[in-house]
Write a structure and sequence with these properties.
Elements lengths: L5 E6 L5 H10 L5 E8 L5 H7 L5 E3 L2 H4 L2 H9 L4 E4 L8 H6 L4 E5 L13 H10 L4 E8 L9 E8 L6 H26 L1
Parallel strand pairs: 1-2, 1-4, 2-3, 4-5
Antiparallel strand pairs: 5-6, 6-7
Helix pairs in contact: 1-7, 6-7
Amino acid sequence: MQNKKINLAIFASGSGTNAENIVKYFLNDDIISVHSVFTNNPKAGVIERMKTYNIPMIIFNKDEFHSKQFLSLLYQLNIDVIILAGFLWLIPENIIVNFPDRIINIHPALLPAYGGKGMYGNNVHKKVIDNKETKSGITIHLVNKDYDKGKILFQAVCHVYPNDTVDTLANRVHLLEYTHFPSIIKAFVLTR
């Protein structure tokens, strides 16, 4: 059995709605806690959101991200699992190697379709609509050295309707994210 809490670090680049949803989910959890949130965007909405929860924020640039000190910081903070919640940079290989099967990402489509570099957020939804797909959804997966190619842990599907806009589809996909991401993180962390 666990003797200490399992510490999550959330990486986010944008508004932080998924990050906040995860933080709220684990607020009173006896085993898992969100230890800190990292962002590569000093203007990200996630920074303001985390003030409410008194979660430490770490803001970093590309050079820092690729440094040995960054990896050391993750160890100093006793981070067990990294959660990517709208984080747009490719994770450096030294972090992937040192956190094998301990980095989880969420993607706003049904991988392997609509994955890869540049395929995030509204770019994905626009492509799904342009290609007249009838379904989309979310994929929660482990991270490896290639964008969106890690082992799939979970997928959930939603319909794409002929009159959908990027916004209406995005809203439906976000609902799936909010519903499933925290519980899939918990299930994975507790069984690893």
